[in-house]
Protein backbone atom coordinates (compact mmCIF):
# COMPACT_ATOMS: atom_id res chain seq x y z
CA UNK A 1 0.00 0.00 0.00
CA UNK A 2 2.96 2.31 0.60
CA UNK A 3 3.66 2.36 -3.15
CA UNK A 4 0.21 3.33 -4.35
CA UNK A 5 -0.60 6.12 -6.78
CA UNK A 6 0.72 9.58 -5.90
CA UNK A 7 -1.08 11.49 -3.22
CA UNK A 8 -4.02 13.60 -4.27
CA UNK A 9 -3.13 17.29 -4.43
CA UNK A 10 -3.61 19.36 -1.30
CA UNK A 11 -7.01 20.77 -0.61
CA UNK A 12 -6.49 23.77 -2.83
CA UNK A 13 -10.06 24.93 -2.93
CA UNK A 14 -10.43 25.15 0.79
CA UNK A 15 -7.04 26.73 1.22
CA UNK A 16 -7.98 29.43 -1.26
CA UNK A 17 -11.35 29.83 0.32
CA UNK A 18 -9.84 30.97 3.55
CA UNK A 19 -7.13 33.16 2.11
CA UNK A 20 -8.94 34.92 -0.68
CA UNK A 21 -10.99 37.99 0.10
CA UNK A 22 -14.44 37.78 -1.49
CA UNK A 23 -13.69 40.35 -4.18
CA UNK A 24 -10.78 38.33 -5.57
CA UNK A 25 -12.56 35.06 -5.93
CA UNK A 26 -12.94 34.99 -9.68
CA UNK A 27 -9.27 35.80 -10.25
CA UNK A 28 -7.36 32.98 -8.66
CA UNK A 29 -6.46 29.93 -10.71
CA UNK A 30 -8.17 27.60 -8.32
CA UNK A 31 -11.43 29.41 -8.75
CA UNK A 32 -11.18 29.99 -12.48
CA UNK A 33 -13.18 26.91 -13.33
CA UNK A 34 -15.68 27.36 -10.55
CA UNK A 35 -18.55 29.81 -10.29
CA UNK A 36 -17.70 33.05 -8.50
CA UNK A 37 -20.40 32.26 -5.99
CA UNK A 38 -18.43 29.37 -4.57
CA UNK A 39 -17.73 31.19 -1.34
CA UNK A 40 -21.35 32.13 -0.94
CA UNK A 41 -22.23 28.54 -1.70
CA UNK A 42 -19.82 27.20 0.88
CA UNK A 43 -21.16 29.52 3.53
CA UNK A 44 -24.76 28.88 2.64
CA UNK A 45 -24.20 25.16 2.88
CA UNK A 46 -23.20 25.61 6.50
CA UNK A 47 -26.10 24.82 8.75
CA UNK A 48 -27.40 27.64 10.86
CA UNK A 49 -29.00 28.09 14.24
CA UNK A 50 -31.30 31.04 14.85
CA UNK A 51 -31.16 32.75 18.26
CA UNK A 52 -34.60 34.01 19.32
CA UNK A 53 -36.14 35.42 22.47
CA UNK A 54 -37.79 38.57 23.82
CA UNK A 55 -35.81 41.85 23.74
CA UNK A 56 -33.15 42.37 26.43
CA UNK A 57 -32.69 38.71 27.29
CA UNK A 58 -29.07 38.75 26.08
CA UNK A 59 -29.30 37.45 22.50
CA UNK A 60 -26.94 39.97 20.97
CA UNK A 61 -24.49 39.71 23.84
CA UNK A 62 -24.34 35.95 23.27
CA UNK A 63 -24.19 36.32 19.51
CA UNK A 64 -21.30 38.77 19.72
CA UNK A 65 -19.39 36.50 22.08
CA UNK A 66 -20.04 33.51 19.83
CA UNK A 67 -18.86 35.18 16.65
CA UNK A 68 -16.03 37.24 18.10
CA UNK A 69 -13.97 34.60 19.88
CA UNK A 70 -11.30 36.12 17.69
CA UNK A 71 -8.25 34.05 18.40
CA UNK A 72 -9.74 30.76 17.29
CA UNK A 73 -11.50 32.36 14.39
CA UNK A 74 -8.47 34.14 12.95
CA UNK A 75 -8.56 31.90 9.90
CA UNK A 76 -12.06 32.99 9.05
CA UNK A 77 -11.72 36.50 7.67
CA UNK A 78 -15.44 36.97 7.30
CA UNK A 79 -16.64 35.91 10.70
CA UNK A 80 -19.74 37.97 10.38
CA UNK A 81 -21.32 37.30 7.00
CA UNK A 82 -24.08 39.80 7.58
CA UNK A 83 -24.42 41.91 10.72
CA UNK A 84 -26.59 39.23 12.28
CA UNK A 85 -25.00 36.09 10.83
CA UNK A 86 -21.82 34.78 12.46
CA UNK A 87 -19.47 31.93 11.58
CA UNK A 88 -18.76 30.13 14.84
CA UNK A 89 -15.88 27.76 15.41
CA UNK A 90 -16.85 24.33 16.75
CA UNK A 91 -14.48 23.63 19.68
CA UNK A 92 -12.79 20.24 19.38
CA UNK A 93 -9.87 19.07 21.57
CA UNK A 94 -9.01 16.33 19.11
CA UNK A 95 -7.56 18.82 16.62
CA UNK A 96 -4.66 19.76 18.90
CA UNK A 97 -4.03 16.13 19.75
CA UNK A 98 -3.92 15.11 16.10
CA UNK A 99 -1.60 18.01 15.37
CA UNK A 100 0.74 16.91 18.15
CA UNK A 101 1.91 14.12 15.82
CA UNK A 102 1.37 15.90 12.47
CA UNK A 103 2.87 19.37 13.18
CA UNK A 104 0.93 21.02 10.38
CA UNK A 105 1.33 24.63 9.24
CA UNK A 106 -2.06 25.39 10.67
CA UNK A 107 -5.10 23.94 12.37
CA UNK A 108 -8.56 24.68 11.06
CA UNK A 109 -11.64 23.83 13.10
CA UNK A 110 -15.02 23.30 11.51
CA UNK A 111 -17.76 25.91 11.84
CA UNK A 112 -21.46 26.39 12.24
CA UNK A 113 -23.49 29.56 11.67
CA UNK A 114 -25.47 31.40 14.30
CA UNK A 115 -28.04 34.07 13.43
CA UNK A 116 -29.12 36.83 15.85
CA UNK A 117 -32.83 37.16 15.16
CA UNK A 118 -34.30 40.33 16.67
CA UNK A 119 -37.89 41.49 16.64
CA UNK A 120 -39.88 38.87 18.47
CA UNK A 121 -42.26 40.58 20.89
CA UNK A 122 -45.80 39.90 21.97
CA UNK A 123 -47.94 40.56 18.88
CA UNK A 124 -45.04 40.01 16.46
CA UNK A 125 -47.04 37.52 14.41
CA UNK A 126 -49.48 40.40 13.76
CA UNK A 127 -46.71 42.82 12.80
CA UNK A 128 -45.81 44.35 16.20
CA UNK A 129 -42.19 45.36 16.80
CA UNK A 130 -40.07 44.84 13.73
CA UNK A 131 -43.03 43.25 12.04
CA UNK A 132 -42.62 40.10 10.09
CA UNK A 133 -38.99 40.63 9.15
CA UNK A 134 -37.87 38.09 11.72
CA UNK A 135 -39.96 35.40 10.09
CA UNK A 136 -37.80 34.96 7.02
CA UNK A 137 -34.75 34.68 9.30
CA UNK A 138 -36.40 31.96 11.32
CA UNK A 139 -37.53 30.13 8.19
CA UNK A 140 -33.96 30.07 6.92
CA UNK A 141 -32.55 28.67 10.15
CA UNK A 142 -32.12 24.90 10.47
CA UNK A 143 -32.66 24.94 14.20
CA UNK A 144 -33.76 27.41 16.83
CA UNK A 145 -32.32 28.26 20.20
CA UNK A 146 -34.50 30.30 22.49
CA UNK A 147 -32.85 32.47 25.14
CA UNK A 148 -34.62 32.86 28.46
CA UNK A 149 -33.62 35.65 30.82
CA UNK A 150 -32.77 34.21 34.22
CA UNK A 151 -30.73 37.18 35.46
CA UNK A 152 -32.04 39.94 37.67
CA UNK A 153 -30.68 43.42 36.91
CA UNK A 154 -32.73 46.53 37.58
CA UNK A 155 -30.60 48.43 35.05
CA UNK A 156 -31.76 46.20 32.22
CA UNK A 157 -35.41 46.76 31.44
CA UNK A 158 -37.55 43.72 30.91
CA UNK A 159 -40.14 44.31 28.17
CA UNK A 160 -42.82 42.77 30.31
CA UNK A 161 -41.48 44.10 33.62
CA UNK A 162 -40.70 40.77 35.23
CA UNK A 163 -38.01 38.11 35.21
CA UNK A 164 -39.86 34.94 34.31
CA UNK A 165 -38.14 32.89 31.60
CA UNK A 166 -40.93 30.33 31.37
CA UNK A 167 -43.50 33.05 30.67
CA UNK A 168 -41.06 34.68 28.19
CA UNK A 169 -40.56 31.44 26.35
CA UNK A 170 -44.32 30.88 26.25
CA UNK A 171 -44.82 34.37 24.77
CA UNK A 172 -42.30 33.79 22.00
CA UNK A 173 -43.48 30.27 21.30
CA UNK A 174 -47.07 31.52 21.11
CA UNK A 175 -46.13 34.08 18.44
CA UNK A 176 -44.48 31.35 16.38
CA UNK A 177 -47.46 29.05 16.91
CA UNK A 178 -49.84 31.79 15.71
CA UNK A 179 -47.80 32.20 12.55
CA UNK A 180 -47.82 28.43 12.01
CA UNK A 181 -51.55 28.34 12.62
CA UNK A 182 -52.06 30.59 9.59
CA UNK A 183 -50.00 28.19 7.48
CA UNK A 184 -51.84 25.15 8.77
CA UNK A 185 -55.21 26.80 8.22
CA UNK A 186 -54.37 27.48 4.57
CA UNK A 187 -53.28 23.89 4.09
CA UNK A 188 -56.44 22.68 5.78
CA UNK A 189 -58.60 24.76 3.45
CA UNK A 190 -56.84 23.21 0.49
CA UNK A 191 -57.25 19.69 1.85
CA UNK A 192 -60.97 20.30 2.36
CA UNK A 193 -61.41 21.60 -1.16
CA UNK A 194 -59.66 18.53 -2.51
CA UNK A 195 -61.65 16.15 -0.33
CA UNK A 196 -64.07 15.49 -3.15
CA UNK A 197 -61.29 14.00 -5.25
CA UNK A 198 -60.87 11.20 -2.69
CA UNK A 199 -57.10 11.62 -2.78
CA UNK A 200 -55.87 9.67 0.28
CA UNK A 201 -52.97 12.09 0.77
CA UNK A 202 -55.34 15.04 1.02
CA UNK A 203 -57.52 13.16 3.46
CA UNK A 204 -54.45 12.53 5.61
CA UNK A 205 -53.41 16.19 5.23
CA UNK A 206 -56.82 17.24 6.53
CA UNK A 207 -56.48 15.00 9.58
CA UNK A 208 -52.96 16.19 10.32
CA UNK A 209 -53.90 19.85 9.96
CA UNK A 210 -56.80 19.44 12.35
CA UNK A 211 -54.54 17.84 14.94
CA UNK A 212 -51.89 20.49 14.44
CA UNK A 213 -54.38 23.37 14.69
CA UNK A 214 -55.51 22.22 18.07
CA UNK A 215 -51.95 21.65 19.27
CA UNK A 216 -50.68 25.05 18.04
CA UNK A 217 -53.72 26.82 19.39
CA UNK A 218 -52.71 25.58 22.85
CA UNK A 219 -49.33 27.29 22.38
CA UNK A 220 -47.49 24.02 21.84
CA UNK A 221 -44.81 23.80 19.14
CA UNK A 222 -45.48 21.51 16.16
CA UNK A 223 -42.35 19.48 16.92
CA UNK A 224 -44.01 18.09 20.05
CA UNK A 225 -47.23 16.99 18.30
CA UNK A 226 -48.00 13.27 18.11
CA UNK A 227 -48.66 12.79 14.41
CA UNK A 228 -49.15 9.67 12.29
CA UNK A 229 -45.82 8.00 11.69
CA UNK A 230 -45.80 7.52 7.92
CA UNK A 231 -43.77 8.73 4.98
CA UNK A 232 -46.76 10.70 3.67
CA UNK A 233 -47.42 12.32 7.03
CA UNK A 234 -43.81 13.42 7.35
CA UNK A 235 -43.90 14.86 3.82
CA UNK A 236 -47.12 16.77 4.50
CA UNK A 237 -45.68 18.37 7.62
CA UNK A 238 -42.33 19.09 6.01
CA UNK A 239 -43.93 20.83 3.02
CA UNK A 240 -45.55 23.36 5.34
CA UNK A 241 -42.12 24.57 6.62
CA UNK A 242 -43.54 25.28 10.04
CA UNK A 243 -41.46 27.51 12.30
CA UNK A 244 -42.22 25.43 15.37
CA UNK A 245 -41.39 22.15 13.67
CA UNK A 246 -37.68 22.99 13.64
CA UNK A 247 -35.48 21.32 16.23
CA UNK A 248 -35.02 23.61 19.22
CA UNK A 249 -33.27 23.95 22.54
CA UNK A 250 -32.95 26.64 25.19
CA UNK A 251 -30.29 28.85 26.68
CA UNK A 252 -30.74 30.07 30.24
CA UNK A 253 -28.95 33.40 30.62
CA UNK A 254 -27.95 33.25 34.27
CA UNK A 255 -26.37 35.90 36.50
CA UNK A 256 -22.74 35.71 37.54
CA UNK A 257 -23.70 34.91 41.11
CA UNK A 258 -25.45 31.61 40.44
CA UNK A 259 -23.82 30.29 37.25
CA UNK A 260 -21.59 28.00 39.32
CA UNK A 261 -24.49 26.96 41.55
CA UNK A 262 -27.48 26.26 39.34
CA UNK A 263 -29.50 24.56 42.05
CA UNK A 264 -29.82 28.00 43.60
CA UNK A 265 -31.42 29.60 40.54
CA UNK A 266 -35.17 29.02 40.53
CA UNK A 267 -35.56 30.56 37.07
CA UNK A 268 -33.11 28.06 35.64
CA UNK A 269 -34.87 25.16 37.34
CA UNK A 270 -38.22 26.29 35.93
CA UNK A 271 -36.82 26.62 32.41
CA UNK A 272 -35.17 23.23 32.68
CA UNK A 273 -38.46 21.65 33.62
CA UNK A 274 -40.17 23.27 30.64
CA UNK A 275 -37.45 22.12 28.24
CA UNK A 276 -37.55 18.58 29.55
CA UNK A 277 -41.32 18.44 29.30
CA UNK A 278 -40.83 19.00 25.55
CA UNK A 279 -38.09 16.39 25.28
CA UNK A 280 -35.56 19.19 24.82
CA UNK A 281 -32.82 20.61 27.02
CA UNK A 282 -31.41 23.86 28.34
CA UNK A 283 -27.82 25.07 28.33
CA UNK A 284 -26.87 27.48 31.13
CA UNK A 285 -24.60 30.43 30.32
CA UNK A 286 -23.84 33.82 31.74
CA UNK A 287 -23.83 36.17 28.76
CA UNK A 288 -22.03 38.89 30.74
CA UNK A 289 -19.16 36.50 31.57
CA UNK A 290 -19.09 35.03 28.07
CA UNK A 291 -18.50 38.42 26.53
CA UNK A 292 -15.51 38.92 28.85
CA UNK A 293 -14.15 35.45 28.04
CA UNK A 294 -14.42 36.11 24.30
CA UNK A 295 -12.27 39.23 24.69
CA UNK A 296 -9.51 37.39 26.52
CA UNK A 297 -6.39 35.98 25.00
CA UNK A 298 -6.86 32.17 24.89
CA UNK A 299 -3.90 31.65 27.23
CA UNK A 300 -5.54 33.80 29.90
CA UNK A 301 -8.83 31.98 29.72
CA UNK A 302 -8.19 28.96 31.96
CA UNK A 303 -7.44 31.16 34.98
CA UNK A 304 -10.45 33.37 34.35
CA UNK A 305 -12.73 30.36 33.95
CA UNK A 306 -11.46 28.85 37.16
CA UNK A 307 -12.10 32.04 39.09
CA UNK A 308 -15.65 32.08 37.72
CA UNK A 309 -16.13 28.44 38.71
CA UNK A 310 -16.46 27.22 35.12
CA UNK A 311 -14.76 24.27 33.42
CA UNK A 312 -15.07 25.80 29.95
CA UNK A 313 -16.85 28.74 28.34
CA UNK A 314 -20.60 28.16 28.51
CA UNK A 315 -20.78 28.89 24.82
CA UNK A 316 -18.89 25.70 24.05
CA UNK A 317 -21.88 23.86 25.46
CA UNK A 318 -24.19 25.93 23.27
CA UNK A 319 -22.20 25.19 20.12
CA UNK A 320 -21.98 21.49 20.87
CA UNK A 321 -25.70 21.36 21.65
CA UNK A 322 -26.54 22.98 18.31
CA UNK A 323 -24.20 20.66 16.46
CA UNK A 324 -25.75 17.63 18.08
CA UNK A 325 -29.30 18.83 17.61
CA UNK A 326 -28.66 19.19 13.88
CA UNK A 327 -27.38 15.61 13.70
CA UNK A 328 -23.85 16.62 12.75
CA UNK A 329 -20.52 14.92 13.25
CA UNK A 330 -16.88 15.67 12.54
CA UNK A 331 -14.19 14.01 10.48
CA UNK A 332 -10.62 15.17 10.01
CA UNK A 333 -8.04 15.58 7.29
CA UNK A 334 -4.42 15.67 8.40
CA UNK A 335 -1.48 16.73 6.26
CA UNK A 336 1.62 18.89 6.42
CA UNK A 337 -0.35 21.95 5.26
CA UNK A 338 -3.21 21.65 7.67
CA UNK A 339 -4.99 19.56 10.20
CA UNK A 340 -8.62 20.27 9.65
CA UNK A 341 -12.06 19.35 10.96
CA UNK A 342 -15.05 19.00 8.63
CA UNK A 343 -18.73 18.54 9.23
CA UNK A 344 -21.08 15.89 7.84
CA UNK A 345 -24.50 14.67 8.78
CA UNK A 346 -24.48 11.58 10.95
CA UNK A 347 -24.93 8.62 8.60
CA UNK A 348 -23.11 10.26 5.67
CA UNK A 349 -21.19 7.87 3.42
CA UNK A 350 -17.60 8.42 2.35
CA UNK A 351 -18.35 10.06 -1.03
CA UNK A 352 -20.70 12.59 0.60
CA UNK A 353 -18.04 13.42 3.15
CA UNK A 354 -15.55 13.87 0.32
CA UNK A 355 -18.03 16.24 -1.31
CA UNK A 356 -17.94 18.48 1.77
CA UNK A 357 -14.29 19.19 0.91
CA UNK A 358 -14.78 19.58 -2.81
CA UNK A 359 -17.49 18.53 -5.25
CA UNK A 360 -14.78 16.93 -7.46
CA UNK A 361 -13.82 14.68 -4.56
CA UNK A 362 -17.35 13.32 -4.54
CA UNK A 363 -17.78 13.02 -8.31
CA UNK A 364 -14.43 11.32 -8.80
CA UNK A 365 -14.47 9.35 -5.54
CA UNK A 366 -12.36 6.19 -5.70
CA UNK A 367 -11.78 5.25 -2.09
CA UNK A 368 -11.12 6.57 1.36
CA UNK A 369 -8.15 5.70 3.56
CA UNK A 370 -9.47 5.86 7.08
CA UNK A 371 -7.73 5.95 10.44
CA UNK A 372 -9.29 6.36 13.84
CA UNK A 373 -8.02 9.65 15.31
CA UNK A 374 -6.82 8.04 18.55
CA UNK A 375 -4.87 5.39 16.63
CA UNK A 376 -3.13 8.13 14.71
CA UNK A 377 -2.26 9.99 17.91
CA UNK A 378 -1.09 6.87 19.75
CA UNK A 379 0.86 5.32 16.89
CA UNK A 380 2.26 8.66 15.75
CA UNK A 381 1.92 8.61 11.98
CA UNK A 382 -0.07 7.37 9.03
CA UNK A 383 2.78 5.01 8.11
CA UNK A 384 2.70 3.47 11.59
CA UNK A 385 -1.06 3.05 11.34
CA UNK A 386 -0.61 1.32 8.01
CA UNK A 387 2.02 -1.06 9.45
CA UNK A 388 -0.19 -1.83 12.42
CA UNK A 389 -3.16 -2.59 10.17
CA UNK A 390 -4.99 0.46 11.52
CA UNK A 391 -5.50 2.13 8.17
CA UNK A 392 -8.58 0.85 6.39
CA UNK A 393 -9.27 1.22 2.68
CA UNK A 394 -12.96 1.95 2.38
CA UNK A 395 -15.31 2.23 -0.59
CA UNK A 396 -18.47 4.11 -1.55
CA UNK A 397 -20.67 2.44 1.03
CA UNK A 398 -18.52 3.31 4.04
CA UNK A 399 -20.51 5.16 6.70
CA UNK A 400 -18.39 7.89 8.30
CA UNK A 401 -17.71 7.86 12.04
CA UNK A 402 -17.27 10.89 14.25
CA UNK A 403 -13.48 11.04 14.68
CA UNK A 404 -12.32 9.44 11.44
CA UNK A 405 -9.14 10.84 9.91
CA UNK A 406 -9.56 10.45 6.18
CA UNK A 407 -7.55 10.70 3.03
CA UNK A 408 -9.72 10.61 -0.08
CA UNK A 409 -8.46 9.22 -3.38
CA UNK A 410 -10.26 10.57 -6.38
CA UNK A 411 -10.10 10.97 -10.11
CA UNK A 412 -11.09 14.21 -11.76
N1 LIG B 1 -26.44 41.73 34.31
C1 LIG B 1 -26.47 41.13 33.12
N2 LIG B 1 -26.79 41.89 32.05
C2 LIG B 1 -26.85 41.28 30.85
C3 LIG B 1 -26.59 39.89 30.69
N3 LIG B 1 -26.75 39.58 29.39
C4 LIG B 1 -27.09 40.72 28.76
N4 LIG B 1 -27.15 41.75 29.64
C5 LIG B 1 -27.45 43.14 29.34
O1 LIG B 1 -28.80 43.25 28.91
C6 LIG B 1 -28.93 44.23 27.89
C7 LIG B 1 -29.59 43.61 26.68
O2 LIG B 1 -28.72 42.63 26.14
P1 LIG B 1 -28.77 42.23 24.59
O3 LIG B 1 -27.77 41.16 24.38
O4 LIG B 1 -28.65 43.44 23.74
O5 LIG B 1 -30.25 41.66 24.50
P2 LIG B 1 -31.13 41.25 23.22
O6 LIG B 1 -32.15 42.35 23.10
O7 LIG B 1 -31.77 39.97 23.60
O8 LIG B 1 -30.25 41.13 22.04
C8 LIG B 1 -27.54 44.74 27.62
O9 LIG B 1 -27.37 45.95 28.32
C9 LIG B 1 -26.64 43.67 28.20
O10 LIG B 1 -25.41 44.20 28.63
C10 LIG B 1 -26.22 39.13 31.86
O11 LIG B 1 -25.94 37.93 31.80
N5 LIG B 1 -26.20 39.81 33.04
MG1 LIG C 1 -30.35 42.18 20.19
UniProtKB/TrEMBL annotation:
Its cofactor is Mg(2+). This is Ribosome-binding ATPase YchF. Keywords: ATP-binding, Magnesium, Metal-binding, Nucleotide-binding. One of its GO terms (cellular component) is cytoplasm. Residues 327-410 form the TGS domain. InterPro entries: ATPase_YchF/OLA1, Beta-grasp_dom_sf, G_OBG, GTP-bd, P-loop_NTPase, TGS, TGS-like, TGS-like_dom_sf. Pfam families: MMR_HSR1, YchF-GTPase_C. Residues 47-305 form the OBG-type G domain. It comes from Labilithrix luteola. ATP binds at residues 56-61. ATPase that binds to both the 70S ribosome and the 50S ribosomal subunit in a nucleotide-independent manner. One of its GO terms (molecular function) is ribosomal large subunit binding. Belongs to the TRAFAC class OBG-HflX-like GTPase superfamily. OBG GTPase family. YchF/OLA1 subfamily.
Amino acid sequence: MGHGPPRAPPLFLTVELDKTPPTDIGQTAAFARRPASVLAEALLMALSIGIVGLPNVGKSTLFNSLSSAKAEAANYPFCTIEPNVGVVVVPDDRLEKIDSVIHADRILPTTINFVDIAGLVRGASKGEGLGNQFLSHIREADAIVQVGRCFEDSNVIHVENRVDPVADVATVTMELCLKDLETVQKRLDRARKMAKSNDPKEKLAGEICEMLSKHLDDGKPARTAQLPDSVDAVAIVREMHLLTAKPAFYIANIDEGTIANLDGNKHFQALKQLAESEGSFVVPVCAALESQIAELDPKDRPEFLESAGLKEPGLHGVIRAGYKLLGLQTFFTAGKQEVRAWTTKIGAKAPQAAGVIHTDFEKGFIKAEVMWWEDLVTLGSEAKCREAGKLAIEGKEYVMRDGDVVHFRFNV
